[in-house]
Amino acid sequence: MTVPGRRSSTFIRLLRSGFTDPSAAARLLDADALAAVRADPVLLDALGATADPDLALLGLVRLAEAQPDGELPGLLDTLVSAKPLRDRLLGVLGASEALGDHLARHPRDWLGLVTYEAADLHPGLPEFELGLADAHDPVGLRVAYRRCLLSIAARDVCGTIDVAQTAAELADLATATLRAALRIASAAAPEDAALCRLAVIAMGKCGGNELNYVSDVDVIFVGDAAPGADEGKALQAATRLASHLMRICSETTVEGTIWPVDANLRPEGRNGPLVRTLASHLAYYQRWAKTWEFQALLKARAVAGDEALGAEYIAAISPLVWQAAERENFVADVQKMRRRVVDNIPAAQVDRELKLGPGGLRDVEFAVQLLQLVHGRSDATLHSGTTLDALHALAAGGYVGRADAAQLHDAYRFLRAMEHRIQLYRLRRTHLVPEDENDLRRLGRSMGLRTEPVAELNKAWRRHASVVRRLHEKLFYRPLLDAVAQLTPGETRLSPRAAGQRLEALGYADPASALRHLEALASGVTRKAAIQRTLLPVMLGWFADSADPDAGLLNFRKVSDALGKTPWYLRLLRDEGAAAENLARVLSAGRLAPDLLMRAPEAVALLGDPEGLEPRTHEALEQEVLAAVGRAENPEAAVAAARGVRRRELFRTTAADIIGSYGTEDNPAEEDHGALVDRVGGAVSDLTAATVAGALRAAVHSHYGDTLPTRFAVIGVGRFGGHELAYGSDADVLFVHEPREGVDEQEAAKAAQTVIAEMRRLLQLPTTDPPLLIDADLRPEGRSGPLVRTLASYAAYYRRWSLTWESQALLRAEPVAGDADIGARFIELIDPLRYPVEGLHEDAVREIRRLKARMESERLPRGADPTLHTKLGRGGLSDVEWTVQLIQMRHAWAEPGLRTTRTREALAAAHAAGLIPTEEAQILDEAWVLATRVRNAVMLVRGRAGDTFPTEARELAAVGRYLGYAEGTVGEMLDDYRRITRRARAVVEELFYGA
Question: Residue ranges of the chain with pLDDT lower than 50?
Answer without folding.
Answer: 1-6, 340
